[in-house]
UniProtKB/TrEMBL annotation:
<keyword id="KW-0472">Membrane</keyword>
<feature type="transmembrane region" description="Helical">
    <location>
        <begin position="124"/>
        <end position="144"/>
    </location>
</feature>
<feature type="transmembrane region" description="Helical">
    <location>
        <begin position="240"/>
        <end position="259"/>
    </location>
</feature>
<feature type="transmembrane region" description="Helical">
    <location>
        <begin position="93"/>
        <end position="112"/>
    </location>
</feature>
<keyword id="KW-1003">Cell membrane</keyword>
<feature type="transmembrane region" description="Helical">
    <location>
        <begin position="165"/>
        <end position="187"/>
    </location>
</feature>
<keyword id="KW-0812">Transmembrane</keyword>
<dbReference type="InterPro" id="IPR000515">
    <property type="entry name" value="MetI-like"/>
</dbReference>
<protein>
    <submittedName>
        <fullName>ABC transporter permease subunit</fullName>
    </submittedName>
</protein>
<feature type="transmembrane region" description="Helical">
    <location>
        <begin position="52"/>
        <end position="81"/>
    </location>
</feature>
<keyword id="KW-0813">Transport</keyword>
<dbReference type="Pfam" id="PF00528">
    <property type="entry name" value="BPD_transp_1"/>
</dbReference>
<dbReference type="InterPro" id="IPR035906">
    <property type="entry name" value="MetI-like_sf"/>
</dbReference>
<feature type="domain" description="ABC transmembrane type-1">
    <location>
        <begin position="57"/>
        <end position="257"/>
    </location>
</feature>
<keyword id="KW-1133">Transmembrane helix</keyword>
<comment type="similarity">
    <text>Belongs to the binding-protein-dependent transport system permease family.</text>
</comment>
Length: 274
């Protein structure tokens, strides 16, 4: 276990040490790092001074908050519907939904569908097409189905409607499963960049991950570098890449400890019984 912890933890430490190293020392060094080479925060200063990073944080926050809210709401409605035993055509509808996990229309039809709706170059193009994830729907549906039917019957005797049963009986008892699904959606939206790359043309609307992709893949750090000479700009460009990775990754890592207890319990409950 200690070996596995080291294997999984060291890449993050390597990125952290590289981001805090002096650019000229890092460029001249090769091999694993066990500590920063010197100490410098110039890369972080350059990243935070880049207006696109701040815009990326704001855009990603908007996408994550609105997207996760819509995801959990829609998934809860669908899971509650599929978990009720007296629903007409429940099995065919469930099989039809599962069918979409294995067979899709493809990228081109997806692009023309979004463009035909007139929501391209908006945040809706990123949020609406992923409103429900089939895998998360099945997890939540399994969790809802494990709740004793007697609780629902007791609520209906008191005059509760379907929405009341869902909000006051089912969801409070299914907090671990809801927390797991929320975490999945949160990580998915935070790491998402492909749909943004396809549908967003205004760089001011780019989410954080798409900006990170431009920095890493296209090797574009010129807007963040304060060095005029080519060699100096190239050296600090390397540390800027590592600093950007740390800034993009840390927020989502800080979220996990707060939902860990729900995550462990929810995965087990949602995976044991159909």
């Amino acid at each position: 276990m200690i070996f596995m912890i080291c294997v999984t933890l060291y890449p993050m430490l390597h990125v952290l040490f590289s981001s805090l190293s002096k650019p000229e020392l890092l460029m001249a060094y090769s091999g694993p790092l066990i500590k920063p080479l010197g100490f410098s925060i110039k890369a972080y200063e350059a990243v935070f001074n880049n207006k696109y990073i701040l815009n990326g944080f704001i855009n990603t926050s908007i996408i994550v908050v609105s997207g996760v809210t819509l995801n959990v709401f829609m998934t809860s409605l669908g899971a509650y519907f599929l978990s009720r035993k007296d629903v007409l055509f429940q099995r065919p509808i469930t099989l039809f939904i599962i069918f979409t996990m294995y067979f899709q229309g493809g990228l081109i039809p997806f692009y023309f569908t979004v463009k035909g709706l007139g929501i391209d170059n908006t945040f809706l193009a990123i949020i609406l097409p992923t409103a429900i994830n089939t895998f998360n729907l099945i997890i939540l549906r399994t969790g809802f189905a494990s709740i004793p039917a007697s609780l629902e019957e007791a609520a209906r005797i008191d005059g509760a409607s379907d929405y009341t049963v869902l909000c006051r009986v089912v969801l409070p008892l299914a907090k671990p499963m809801v927390a797991v699904v929320t975490l999945y959606y949160l990580v998915s939206h935070w790491n998402s960049w492909f749909n943004a790359m396809i549908f967003l043309t205004d760089k001011k609307m780019y989410p954080l991950q798409l900006i990170l992709r431009e920095i890493l893949v296209q090797n574009d750090t010129s807007s963040m570098s304060t060095y005029s000479e080519v060699g100096q700009q190239e050296s600090i460009g390397e540390t800027i890449k590592y600093a950007t990775i740390m800034i993009v990754t840390l927020p989502i890592l800080f979220v996990y400890p707060f939902v860990q207890k729900y995550f462990e319990k929810g995965v087990m409950i949602g995976a044991v019984k159909q």
